[in-house]
Amino acid sequence: MKVYLDEDGHRRLIGRAGIPEDVGAVHREWLFGGASAIYEDFTIGSVTRFGPDGSTTVERVVILSPMQRADFLPGWAPFAS
Questions:
Q1: pTM for this structure?
Q2: Helix (H, G, I), strand (E, B) or coil at 71
Q3: Beta bridge partners of 10
Q4: Any idea of the CA torsion for 56, 81, 75, 47, to the nearest 10 degrees?
Q5: How far is residue 57 from each of residues 36, 51, 53, 66, 78, measured CA to CA in Å?
Q6: Which of 15, 16, 31, 39 could join 78 via S-S bond, C-beta 3.0 to 4.6 A?
Q7: For residue 30, is pLDDT > 90?
Q8: Residue 21 has pLDDT above 90, yes or no
Q9: What is the chain's mean pLDDT, rounded?
Q10: Distance in angstroms (rounded) separating the CA atoms of residues 21 and 1
Q11: In the predicted structure, residue 34 carries a pLDDT above the cut 70
C-alpha cells in the first residue's frame, strides 16, 4: 500500500508499506509486547488521482500525520527523493 504524509492538508507520496488492501480504517502496528503493549495507529484513507485523459483513480493508502514515523510500518520502503 502507498504511504502519504499529510502536511497541512496536502498529501505527499513518500513510500510503500506491506499493509494488506483489506485492512479497515485504522491499521494498528504493535511495537512492543507484554502486559503494557505499546502500539501505533495508522490511518487508512483514500487518495484520488486525476489522469491526463480526465480519468480518475481512487486508491486506499496509509496517511501519516507529521509526527508519525513510517519506519514502524511493516515492509516500509521509502521512495528515493
A1: 0.84
A2: helix
A3: 7
A4: -20
A5: 41, 8, 12, 25, 22
A6: 15
A7: no
A8: no
A9: 91
A10: 7
A11: no
Contacts 24+ apart (CB under 8 A), 32-40: 40/68, 40/69, 40/72
**Amino acid, single-letter form, for residue 29:** E
Using only the alpha carbons of the chain, give its radius of gyration: 14
User: What span, in angstroms and rounded, lies between the C-alpha atoms of 78 and 76?
Assistant: 7
End-to-end Cα, the chain, rounded Å: 18
Kindly tell me the sign of the dihedral angle through the C-alpha atoms of 14, 15, 21, 27.
negative
| Beta pairing, strands 2-7 & 56-64 | parallel
Cβ proximity of 31 and 38 under 8 Å? yes
- Using alpha carbons only, what angle is made at residue 63 by residues 26 and 52, rounded to the nearest 5 degrees? 130
% of the chain surpassing 70 pLDDT: 94
The arithmetic mean of pLDDT across residues 45-71, rounded, is 93
Measured in degrees and rounded to the nearest 5, phi and psi for residue 64 equal: -95, 145
